[in-house]
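QA checklist item 7 of 12: single-chain prediction sanity check.
[x] sequence parsed
[x] length recorded as 187
[x] structure emitted
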Amino acid sequence: MNKKTLALTAEQYEEIIKTMKSGFSGCRPNERIATALVLEANLGLRISDIIKLRLCDIVRDGDRYRLEITERKTGKSRVFTVPLVIQQYIENYCLRNGIGKKEVIFPITDRQVQKQLAIVCDYLGYDGIGTHSFRKYYATEIYKNNNYDITLVQRLLQHSSAAITQRYIGIEDRRIEEAITNHVCLI
């Protein structure tokens, strides 16, 4: 799949997750895939890394939790804090579903996630959305909520340059549009 995926809006994110959790005519609810996508949107990991997670990968470190992974796509190591509310969300999901600490939380393939997401997006009438849209949503929200700090987002995503990150989150296009719209000099 070589088409460019879009970053989700907050409304699209919420509607996709709710629809996936509740199901609709011809499509049963799928909490497992919905939860995997929630984690992608909240941790900024690729879906290929999310589906390999085990509860024991999230380690208590003093008064916080941290996750240390080696990204499948890049082979880069990444260590970061997992917010307490996300750690509890994952733990509660595992408890409800009888998933042990050392078991893979999501015993599914990224293709299964992509197929289910495509069904839900087709039902909702959304185009250009794939699993990577959830990572882009994470990046865009971090960018907007942290004083438009592109370097912060670049580091979080482990991109090699800020230019890649700007294209990735689509901020450049929006900034150009805003600059054109805001530049009116009629006499």
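[x] summary fact logged: The first helix runs from residue 10 to 22.
[ ] second reviewer sign-off
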